């Protein structure tokens, strides 16, 4: 019933300009003058912030999220939030996790860092304190070699000419570059801190600053996550899944990482491998990696098809490469077992692209009629494309609400303590997650 409401109700956001309705009941509309009236402010003093938040969220008809993440993978309505393999702003990550847990995501993917994992879990539990719902899986991301997702920008602000227009600051989607001691919001270690240069924990390695520097002062610092530290992190009870980022070209490096992780992988519910489109060699690379994992694979596995990394927030066309990658892999009869999930350039237009290709929530038996398929028909019903991972776009639409909140209440503000911002953020998240969850 709740899910049907979401499917038939147009969520009003700036990204859905044609929508004529809003998810928020008129009695709780943010444009309602009563929300900002002195009478309302007086009334709220008699109620705790927690009660206000619960009232707002319970008034919304949220998607039905009673099914497990595994069930979502089978049905084709799996949604993963990508916080960023290098993004380490724990305050922002906590708030993102809270909002998207309420919106019904099945998994939250984050950096393989203990403090980041704790922030994700804290956000999840804060959401579950508001509304009784099932817990999304927590996934950590690692890499076997140099990878775009595992790098940071770096430069010495003292080397920057005083008359530079600072294009790097303007182009950064994470607000991770600041100059001249201006207060920078959303920093995990302080409410408002004056920082010049790159704010390391906010930089997630998109690389957009590198080509725009007129003096070529910015450099990238790449790194590889330590396998032993990752193995210890996997043994925590609050980590459910792991994703290995690989180019697919060097199976030796993949094998070294897999072997170094040892028996720790037995603690996981899902193991994902994220790889770019390698053209004709993609399927053979996938089969090579699966053969490496298979002897010690005790969980479900997933292939993340990374179309155009870290580009979903750029524009409508960014999702084309992820759609094309999905078409290529689903047509391959010799692909190895495992769920398939889109990433890299995914945004509000991804579902439309999948539907045009006949891939949205389409089962294997309907799409593949060849009995020689690597995936046995006995596994059906099983969605050909299990779901979508949203990264930059998901962070952008909710992040601007969180930034607005932080500008008013400080960089360490918790979104559940400011109900009007929680409601706005949740509307944005539902506009993205809801269409995937419609059955």
From TrEMBL:
Family matches, as SUPFAM superfamilies: 4Fe-4S ferredoxins
Organism of derivation: Sphenostylis stenocarpa
Residue stretches spanning the membrane: none
PANTHER family on file: PHOTOSYSTEM I IRON-SULFUR CENTER, PHOTOSYSTEM I IRON-SULFUR CENTER-RELATED
InterPro entries reported in the protein's UniProt record: 4Fe4S_Fe-S-bd, 4Fe4S_Fe_S_CS, Fe-S-bd_prot_LdpA_C, LdpA_Fe-S-bd, PSI_iron-sulfur_center
UniProt feature, compositional bias: Polar residues: 19-41
Keywords annotated in UniProt: 4Fe-4S, Iron, Iron-sulfur, Metal-binding
Span of domain 4Fe-4S ferredoxin-type: 151-182, 193-223
Region Disordered, annotated ranges: 17-46
Molecular-function annotations in GO: 4 iron, 4 sulfur cluster binding; metal ion binding
Name of the featured protein: 4Fe-4S ferredoxin-type domain-containing protein
